[in-house]
Amino acid sequence: MLALSTPTYTPTTPLCSCRSSPHPLVAIFFVHNSPPEWANMDSTFGPRLLGHFDFTLLFEHAMFQIGPSSILIFTLPFYLHKIITCQPLVRPGWLLWAKVAVAVSIAAVQLAGVVFWRYWGDYNHLRISLTIYTYYHRTGLDTIARLTCSLPAFKLALIVLEEISKRSLIIAENRNQLSDETTAGFWNRATFLWINPLLLFGFRRIIHNGDLPDIGEQFDSRRLYENLKVSWGKQDQKSKNALLRALVFSTPWPLVFVLLPRLFLVGFTFGQPFLLQDVVSFSGGATNQPDYISIEEEATSLILATALIFCGKALSRTWFSHIRNQIMVCIRGGLASVVYDKSLRLGGAEAEDSAAITLVTADIPGIEALISLWYDLFAMVLEVAFGITVLTRFVGAASAVAVICTILATILSQHISKQINITRKIWNGHIQDRVAATSNVLAQTKDIKMTGLANSMGRYLKELRAKEIEASLRTRRLNCLSFALGSFADAMTPAAVVAAALFWTKTLDPTATARFYTVLAVVTLLTDPLSNLIVSLPGWASGFACLSRIQNYLTQEEPQDPRRIQSPSRRSSSRASSSRPARPPALLIQLQGINVTMIHGSVGCGKSTLLNVMLGEMPLRNGRVTLYTRSISFAGQKPWLLNTTIRLNIIGRKAYNQVLYERVIFICDLTTDFQQLPDGDQTVVGSGGCQLSGGQKQRISIARALYVEATVTILDDPFSSLDVATSALIRIRLISDGHAAPNGRALVMTTSMKQHLVDANTVYRVQTDGYVVQLTQEQVDAELDELARNHRASMATTISANANSVVSLEPPSVQPAIEDDLDNKRDVTAENYSSFSVYKYFLRPAGIATVIIWLILEGIAAASERLPNVYIRIWLEEDASNYLYYIGYALFCLAHPILNGSTAAYFFWFVNAPTVTKLHDSLVDATLGATFSFLAEEDTGSILNRFSSDMNLATQRIPALIVPTIWRTYAILIDIAIISAGAAYAAAIIPFFVFFIIGIQRFYLRTSRQLRALELDTSKSLIRHLVETAAGIVHVRAFCWQEEVMDDFYTMLDIAQRPFYLLFCVQQWLECVLDLSSSGAAVLVVTFAVKFSNTASANSMGLAFLSLIGFSNTVTMCFGIKLCVRSLWKPRASSCFPDQQSYCYYSPRPEWVTWNYWQNWKW
Predict the structure, then answer these.
(1) Does the keyword Metal-binding apply (predicted)?
(2) Are 110 and 229 contained in the same domain?
């Protein structure tokens, strides 16, 4: 099977040369003419054919022909159904005809094989076909041998053709928008070659969001939302795990697809101990091969087996991780969509508490980690079971010790997991409170700074952060126990198994080096999934806590709209009644065409509550609200503006109509304001309208309500933020000039000023006890005495004469004199800060001495994990028969969990706690101390994203990675030394390997950092949209804009998903490169060891091979933490916010008041 030449058979040809045939069809000829005992060997399953460096014919037919053919025949009906039902996507071209030509060639060769088998059927028949006889009536079998050898070449050509992209042949018009992954071939996707153009682009240039390719239709947010919504609706929502089942069933097919590569990964992983045994045995001079297998053939087989196992493990792990990441992206899109959809259907108070922001930024990432762990769980269980089975083969009953350790660790881990679930819920609750308070503060920054409450509000936010840190330390304490327990299972299980095998079953002999290292490798593969399961318990507990919070949010009771819709032929009415029997039983409020209704009352009497009842936002005790239309516009007492231009805020979701637009801005007296603003109505209002005055914001809100031209317009105290002259002018233009209720439309307005009642057709008064009474015209006239009438007429005449001279109450915002310097300071990216500066900024609050002590402890902890294996080598080399060496081995194993848990505790208490506290406090001080002009231009969603996502990154993700990653950094150095000691010549390649890793790191980080920055930037749009929707949820429902804002959210989420998914792909590319590089290093080490036997001993190879098994995982983790830590450049850049004190161009006079009462007031 390995040779490509086919000898001509003669009766004296040796049998071994016959097995050099490249194909079983040729080999069977010689076996048939060979002695019967050799033919019987080829009839067995094997897989090895005795006497040859080859498989048996039965094994080859079963595994390489019958097996794949059976799978193809089984899937053929499904494939045909898909082909028949789907529409053509690609037009014919040269690529199609090249594939057809190669396929026809393959079919011809296969047909020749059929003819060949029919020819040999002559032995069982009396007559033979003349055609077949003529075809084979020639000397030897050279022709069929050549045909057989050509078959792999044709198949390879077909594989190469399948890898060629069909993008230019795609029929769809949007083929240029298709991602490279969609049009890539199998091996292109398996090795992530399709991502190389993006990596090269990011290495050479700055990546913008428009440069990113689309990621495929399966990640469409609308589709994900529909799938999850259907799945969620089918679940019993009272069940504890209803949301988890809904997530699983919303993406059913990936559940199946992810199993196959995971099974391959398990198979290749457990093939490594057996490979280690053979390599160590070969290095020690022992061999298990028969005499007819030469040393060279055995060495070659070991090299090929190393390449197969390590490369197969690399590709299968990459394949599995990629499918798992795709599932996580789908889960993220579906959950974010359903959370946002739920926020549109909750009450105004529930929607405004910013719970959706915390769920999207903190809880959904926790569920993503839970889903990842969920797919690893079954593999962990399978690996533990398979590991125990294999271990039993080597040590017999001593493997029961591993079972006992597994059960004990599982019981303890379950107890810790339950406690973490409780503490994590409390922690997330504190995060939600802090984010909600921060959102409220950012929305009122202008008022806070003008009233001198900045210091008090800063202290308040810092106190909330301190409570959050205190709650997080409870979880950290359990995390340290989990780390120690995982390390205990990882270190003490091998010690316990070795002790049981040495002193109890006596099935392990230290003098048998290969067997000893094989047992250690099997125990390592057994304890790794167990240790990972225990260490991942905080992730499990946190994930279920996050899942529970989102499920509770989705199962909140939704307020029911008490209004009823009737046909337009009926009039709209609102009937509400009081539960007190002493009052009249009912009040009828009717709104008809060309009707101006005003609701008057003192401040706080309940006017807004009555309007909320009309809008369907408040429940009714008694009575009913009946509407004949849902065409309603609304302007609240608190203006709701989006962070966009003034024009877009006014026109809303309606098409631009110049005539209507100019009439509306005339009514609201905005023409003069537009002339004074630098950009006119194209001025961006800022977050919450912070670029505008209070009166301007109120008039824009009124203009939006009028521009909609709804059947019913509801204005909630619209003149509360306006001066008397401006409010009178708008009222006259709106009502007296007939613009309020044209074409049968009605206007409802609340007010606390009696002078506005003069233009009302109907007036209702809300009394101080909450009852509503209708005033007759006589009652209205009586309250508006003659003086008020004369004053109104005089004011109207004065304003009409000076209408063109009315100016805005506040001047436009003035840019500071050093704006250019500020732009330079704010124009920061991840590249402006080096990794060292970010590390320094992050760890500086802990103190240099504290950080140095922690790094020393991490180095000792990393060495404590590797020292047991090093000690084993010393034991076996010095005196393998002396069992007293086991005491030192056990002590080294015991030291590791103690040091690991202690180091983690030291980090969480003395390094991380002061670090994240200082990080948050610095951000608070920089935000509240920044100039107003800067805060007006800076997007609130971006600032809030730093308080939510970036703080969660610093508090949760980085601590969860930085402890094991610093430990792995030390482990890399130790592993490199151990691997280089495995073979003398292998040490020469270590510098090249290190330089290669450094080059890959620089190439990878240039793009990954930019993708991470883009992910954070796009997520701020989602957060801003969530904040704005929560602030204006009553307006959204009043205008019936739920579908429109949901479409906007889909668009923003799709944009945010692209860098999120591509960052996953880039990380998988790195993992694949590192795994393949480790595979190359393993092949080189094994090659030097087996080809130059004098360069390596059995002990050195055993120790080196143990380090090679997990080397790529260690390097990948180090790159992961560098990416996460570098994401802290935004909080680092926040320290460059322009300080308000730097803009004080003069000193206050001594006689001015310098003491601020509010600074001493405790919030």
Answers:
(1) no
(2) no
Residue 824 placed within a domain: no
- Helix 513-535 and helix 364-395, axial crossing angle in degrees, nearest 10: 150
Q: Can you give the pLDDT at residue 117? A: 57
Q: Based on the domain organization, do 356 and 467 belong to the same domain? A: yes
Q: Answer yes or no: are the C-beta atoms of 162 and 185 closer than 8 Å.
A: yes
DSSP letters for 610-649: HHHHHTT-S--SSEEEEES---EEEE-SS----SSBHHHH
The H or E element containing residue 716 is strand 712-716
Are 223 and 141 contained in the same domain?
no
For residues 952 and 974, state if they share a domain. Answer: yes
- Give the mean pLDDT per block of 10 residues along the chain (1163 residues): 35 37 38 48 65 69 76 80 74 78 80 63 51 46 60 79 74 64 80 89 88 84 91 87 87 76 86 82 66 71 88 89 89 92 82 76 83 78 83 85 81 81 84 85 80 86 89 86 81 87 84 80 80 73 85 86 68 43 53 75 83 83 78 88 90 89 90 86 83 87 90 87 84 74 76 80 82 80 62 50 41 36 39 59 82 89 84 83 87 88 88 86 84 70 74 74 73 72 62 80 85 84 86 88 91 91 90 86 82 68 68 64 55 54 44 41 36
Q: Mind spelling out the 3-state secondary structure of 724-789?
A: HHHHHHHHHHHHHCCCCCHHHCEEEEEECCHHHHHHCCEEEEECCCCCEEEECHHHHHHHCCHHHH
What is the greatest pairwise CA distance in the chain? 135
pLDDT tens digit sequence for 369-393: 887 787 777 778 888 888 888 888 8
Interval 632-653: pLDDT, tens: 899 988 888 888 899 999 998 8
* CA–CA separation, 441 and 445 (whole Å): 6
Same domain, yes or no, for 446 and 354?
A: yes
Residue 774, φ and ψ in degrees, nearest 5: -95, 135
Of 1072, 1102, 1075, give the one whose Cα is nearest residue 1086. 1102
Q: Distance between CA 703 and CA 762 in Å, rounded?
A: 23
Structure tokens at 650: 């006014």
Residue ranges making up the domain that contains 40: 15-172
Q: Is the residue at 188 inside a domain?
A: no
Helical (H) or strand (E) element with 999: helix 990-1031
In a domain, 1151, yes or no: no
How confident is the model at residue 290, as a pLDDT?
56
Omega within 30 of 0 (cis) for the link into 252: no
Q: Which of these three, 149, 172, 195, is where a domain ends?
A: 172
Would you say 543 and 369 are in contact if contact means Cβ atoms under 8 Å apart? Answer: yes
Contact 1128, 1134 (CB under 8 A): no
Residues 150 and 247 in one domain: no
**Do the Cβ atoms of 708 and 641 come closer than 8 Å?**
no
CATH number assigned to the domain comprising residue 750? 3.40.50.300
| Strands (E) located in 148-297 | none
Cα distances from 675 to residues 679, 683, 698, 808, 1018, in angstroms, run 9, 11, 18, 11, 34
850 and 776 assigned to the same domain: no
Q: Which of 783, 805, 827 is the last residue of a domain?
A: 805
Q: What is the CATH number of the domain that holds 356?
A: 1.20.1560.10
Is residue 4 a part of any domain in this protein? Answer: no
Instruction: Give, as one character, the DSSP assignment of residue 587.
Output: E
Number of domains in the chain: 3
Please write the tens of the pLDDT for every residue from 112-169.
766 665 555 555 455 554 444 444 444 444 555 566 677 778 778 887 877 777 777 7
CA distance 1057 to 1055: 5
The count of other CB atoms within 10 Å of the CB of residue 40 is 10
Residues 536, 491 share a domain: yes
Q: For position 1050, what pLDDT does the model report?
A: 93
Neighbours of 18 (CB within 10 A): 20
Helix (H, G, I), strand (E, B) or coil at 170: strand
